[in-house]
């Protein structure tokens, strides 16, 4: 009897252990399933291996311990999903990659030299290039500061016609802020121009040029698609004003042209692998040059299969255009400028966009209250509407040296020219 009781006891203990094992396994399976479900939202400390919280290229007990010690906090390294809080979602992603490793230098899934599968577009394929909310024969928009599209409504009400496009700038402080999606973008019916650096602003192009950031950009494409932004109304303006010397990643400054080109190729290829319908704009500033570099030969010809739009920023500054001679010398014939960019666009079957244009309030820098500049830009837009994807009036104060704003009453003559019913509409 005693032996029988002992055997029975062992059986019951084995049964309990079996039940516990199955329960443990079931819990882990649930976590793993949840992790797989949320994996597409992951922006981990190690972009190449989601769940590698401490960036040692493997997911193990150390990562789990660190994540649990920061439970319910906003620790960015442990916030694997990038939703702003360390929670069950992050734990699930970590467990779904348990015991996985990453070897630095592993070639990315999409080779850096492979062009996007989506072919370049011509003007006839761009959304609403002939039918717009504003009633103009091109898409007309603004930037007023900030990421919320709704903030532009005051400007559109002031001018008297609806807006077709809004340009905004991503916060390049870090990867999470760079890839933030504003809720207002999801319901905006117009063109959304998102201005992004190839990597956070404090970094050079080396990592992006060698493919080390490819997974981050593939994840960003997935994030855009999940937000309903994988469409031809979303324009990614990557590495803007590349010919300037004021950005660390610009080919006109600290970055060399080859690194810039390779970084753009990798970014475009990666993001379009998961968001194939977005459009790509590569932008230059009027006139800025770098010794030994030719913008068409060295930058745009190598990138022509990776872009849909050539963006140009062309303010009434350095120097102003107050008569026809100045208009020709300061706007039309600058290189890059209106003439040279539009010629390259037509020769290569692309579109052009004036992504930043505006008056300048400081007399030592620009034309101040200059209606002539407004009138001539209107004429140029009409003459080139066959290739004009959109134009963005930069109605933002900026700094005291620039003061671009036109809607605040400081530049009444330029404002009257802009608001004329013969031009952008609705005003007197």
Would you mind describing this structure in some detail?
Helices cover 35% and strands 11% of the residues. The chain folds into 2 domains: 2-96, no CATH class; 123-419, Glycosidases (TIM Barrel, Alpha-Beta Barrel). It contains 13 helices and 8 strands. By secondary structure, the protein is of the alpha/beta class. The chain has an 8-stranded parallel barrel.
Q: Concise description?
A:
This protein has 428 residues and is an alpha/beta fold. The protein is 35% helix and 11% strand.
Descriptive tags:
alpha/beta, about 425 residues, TIM Barrel, 13 helices, about 35% helix, 2 domains, 8 strands, 8-stranded parallel beta barrel, globular
Count of DSSP E strands?
8
Q: In which range does the helix fraction lie?
A: 25-40%
Span from first to last CA? 106 Å
Number of helices: 13
Can you identify the CATH class of the largest domain? Answer: Alpha Beta
Structural class: alpha/beta
CATH architecture heading of the largest domain? Alpha-Beta Barrel
Overall morphology: globular
What is the CATH topology classification name of the largest domain?
TIM Barrel
Question: Strands across the major sheet, in which order?
Answer: 1-2-3-4-5-6-7-8
Quote the average pLDDT. Answer: 84
| Cα-atom radius of gyration | 26 Å
What is the ordering of alpha helices and beta strands?
A: HHHEHEHEHHEHEHEHHEHEH
Low-confidence segments, given as residue ranges, are 1-22, 24-44, 105-124
Provide the CATH superfamily of the largest domain.
Glycosidases
Largest sheet: 8 strands, parallel, barrel
Supply the number of structural domains: 2
Relative strand content = 5-15%
């Amino acid at each position: 009897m005693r032996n029988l009781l002992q055997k029975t006891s062992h059986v019951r203990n084995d049964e309990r252990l079996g039940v516990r094992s199955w329960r443990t396994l079931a819990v882990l399976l649930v976590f793993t399933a949840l992790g797989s479900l949320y994996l597409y939202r992951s922006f981990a400390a190690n972009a190449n291996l989601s769940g590698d919280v401490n960036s040692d290229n493997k997911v193990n007990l150390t990562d789990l311990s660190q994540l649990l010690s920061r439970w319910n906090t906003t620790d960015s390294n442990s916030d694997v999903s990038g939703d702003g809080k360390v929670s069950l979602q992050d734990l699930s992603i970590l467990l779904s990659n348990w015991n996985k490793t990453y070897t630095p230098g592993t070639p990315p899934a999409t080779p850096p030299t492979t062009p996007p599968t989506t072919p370049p577009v011509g003007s006839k394929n761009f959304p609403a290039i002939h039918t717009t909310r504003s009633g103009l024969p091109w898409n007309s928009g603004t930037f007023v500061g900030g990421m919320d599209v709704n903030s532009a409504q005051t400007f559109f009400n002031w001018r008297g016609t609806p807006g077709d496009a809004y340009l905004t700038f991503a916060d390049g402080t870090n990867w999470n802020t760079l890839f933030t999606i504003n809720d207002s973008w999801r319901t905006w019916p117009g063109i959304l121009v998102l201005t992004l650096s190839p990597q956070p602003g404090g970094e050079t192009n080396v990592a992006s040029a060698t493919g080390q950031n490819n997974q981050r950009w593939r994840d960003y494409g997935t994030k855009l698609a999940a937000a309903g932004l994988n469409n031809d109304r979303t324009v990614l303006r990557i590495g803007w004003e590349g010919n300037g010397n004021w950005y660390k990643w610009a080919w006109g400054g600290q970055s060399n042209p080859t690194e810039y080109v390779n970084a753009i190729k990798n970014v475009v290829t990666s993001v379009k692998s998961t968001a194939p319908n977005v459009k790509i704009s590569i932008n230059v500033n009027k006139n800025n040059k770098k010794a030994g570099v030719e913008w068409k030969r060295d930058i745009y010809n190598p990138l022509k299969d990776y872009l849909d739009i050539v963006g140009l920023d062309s303010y009434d500054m350095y120097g102003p255009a107050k008569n026809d001679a100045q208009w020709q010398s300061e706007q039309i014939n600058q290189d890059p400028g209106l003439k040279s960019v539009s010629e390259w666009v037509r020769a290569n079957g692309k579109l052009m966009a004036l992504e930043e244009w505006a008056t300048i309030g400081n007399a030592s820098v620009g034309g101040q209250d200059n209606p002539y500049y407004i009138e001539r830009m209107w004429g140029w837009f009409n003459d080139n509407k066959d290739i004009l994807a959109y134009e963005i009036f930069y109605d933002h104060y900026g700094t005291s040296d620039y003061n671009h704003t036109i809607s605040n009453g400081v530049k009444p003559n330029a404002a009257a020219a802009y608001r004329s019913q013969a031009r952008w509409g609705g005003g007197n």
